[in-house]
Amino acid sequence: MTAGLVLGLSAAGLASWMRRRGVRVPYTRKVFHFAVFTGAAVVHTYWGLPGTNVYGATVAAIVLAAVLAGDGNPLYEALARDTDRPKRSLFIVVPLVMTAIGGLTSALLAGPYAGVGYLVAGWGDAVGEPVGSRWGRHRYRVSSLGGVPAERSLEGSAAVFGAAWLAAIVALLGTGMGAGSGLVLVALACAATGAAAEAVSNHGLDNLTVQVVASLTALWLVT
């Protein structure tokens, strides 16, 4: 509980501080996203599913408190996109719920390889949105919730794949898999399926799909 609280508050504090310093939401939101998913992978490695559940509940409580506080709350403003108006809170709560469901599903189905899903989703998506926001030129529409229009870009999706590949390598090494061509190829497959899931998933639901797809890919190819 203490470790989860420290990690969660640290991530929230960093994102809030960056937003107060004028950093745009696509970056502050994804810094929080990156930190939370990385923390989940670390907790899962050392404390397993029980520790991950406590960590997830702690992070959820921090985020929900910010949502209840609403406009003006430092963490809320660091997580709420202007492009999601008038349903900014919806697109904080839905990804939070999808993250929890995806993390639990990955842990139950993929066991030690759940960490692959955590890092692929955490690192890939954290890089994809800022890259797409700044350099995305070739855009495509994706389905969304609540009637809020959403776009992604080929440049952002390519960034998701690159970051996911690195994330999968790190996560697979954490499971004890030896370095070599086998690890690189499995990581490529995890990155490809994770990036594909992110590209086609509804806006707000990719935190679920990417985790599960990447974790199950690792499980299938390694075992």
Compose a concise summary of this entry.
The model has no long low-confidence stretch (mean pLDDT 90). 77% of the residues lie in helices and 4% in strands.
What are the salient characteristics of this protein?
globular, mainly alpha, two-stranded antiparallel sheet, 223 residues, 77% helix
Care to describe what's here?
- The protein has 223 residues and is mostly helical.
- It has one domain.
- 77% of the residues lie in helices and 4% in strands.
- The chain is built from 8 helices and 2 strands, in the order αααααββααα.
- The chain has helices at residues 2-20, 25-69, 74-79, 90-110, 114-135, 154-174, 181-200, 206-222, and strands spanning 139-142, 150-153.
- A two-stranded antiparallel ribbon has the order 1-2.
- Helix 4 runs antiparallel to helix 5 (114-135).
- It is globular and about 50 Å long.
- The protein starts with a helix and ends with a helix.
- The mean pLDDT is 90.
SSE order, as H and E?
A: HHHHHEEHHH
Rounded mean pLDDT is 90
Radius of gyration: 16 Å
- Count of separate DSSP helical elements: 8
Largest sheet: 2 strands, antiparallel
Helicity, in percent?
over 70%
Any idea what the shape is?
globular
Number of strands: 2
Which blocks of ≥5 consecutive residues have pLDDT under 50? none
Distance between the termini: 32 Å
Specify the structural class: mainly alpha
**What is the spatial order of strands in the main beta sheet?**
1-2
Q: Strand-residue fraction?
A: under 5%
Provide the number of structural domains. Answer: 1
